[in-house]
Amino acid sequence: MNVLFYSASLTGIGKRFLRIVVSHIPRDRIEICRSLAALDARLRRPLEGLAIAVFHITLVDELGALITRRDLLADFRTILVLPNCDEATTALAHVLRPRFVVYSDGDLPDASVVLGKMLQGTKKGIVPKGWDGLVPEVTTLQ
Q1: Residue 83: exposed, middle, or buried by beta-carbon count in 10 A (0-12, 13-18, 19+)?
Q2: Which residues contact 128 (CB under 8 A, 6 or more apart)?
Q3: In 3-state terms, what secondary structure has residue 64?
Q4: Cβ-contact 43, 72 below 8 angstroms
Q5: How far is the CA of 14 from the CAs of 45, 66, 87, 129, 134, in angstroms?
Q6: DSSP state of 17
Q7: What residue ranges define each of the domains in the chain, with the CATH number in brackets?
Q8: Which of 53, 69, 86, 103 has its CB 3.0 to 4.6 Å from that of 4, i.e. a possible disulfide?
Q9: Cβ contacts of residue 12 below 8 Å, gap of 6+?
Q10: Is 48 in contact with 42 (CB distance < 8 Å)?
């Protein structure tokens, strides 16, 4: 089972959260997308073992762009890292039906626990719709 990690600017909390993801699973099982174009290209391919997606959002416009892709994200268990805890931003984020939301000034240990439980759930046979069990090669999309 693999994790899709999106962050257009891999700095600050996004970089710290990527380290948390790497602490849970090997780096070769993480697919990193550094742009919306790269994310689009990845989402249009077969899931090939992808079950969890982590999105580090730095701008509300990025969140809007993800919402337009929500049909392509429906099969993922999602963690969102949002830029602020503004009520409007949070309301928009819930359109994506995330399993967990953390804010830029939030508590990452909680997110780490949630990610760990999500990974354990897939190991115990709780498999998202569309997962074919194949493990792809490592890919970092720019």
Answers
A1: middle
A2: 51, 75, 76, 77, 122
A3: helix
A4: yes
A5: 24, 16, 21, 27, 27
A6: H
A7: 2-128 (3.40.50.2300)
A8: 53
A9: 104
A10: no
d(CA 66, CA 6): 10
Structure-token match 């990974």, residue found: 119
The pLDDT tens digits for 17-53 are 889 899 998 898 999 999 999 999 999 998 888 889 9
Phi-psi region of 12 (alpha: psi -120 to 50; beta: other; left: phi over 0): left
Q: How far apart are CA 11 and CA 57, in angstroms?
A: 11
Q: Are 101 and 82 in contact (CB under 8 A)?
A: yes
3-state secondary structure 68-127: HCCCCCCCCEEEEEECCCCHHHHHHHHHHCCCEEEECCCCHHHHHHHHHHHHHHHHCCCC
Looking at the whole model, is its pTM more than 0.85? no
Q: Report the C-alpha gap between 137 and 124 in whole angstroms.
A: 23
Q: Which two tokens stand for residue 46?
A: 């077969």
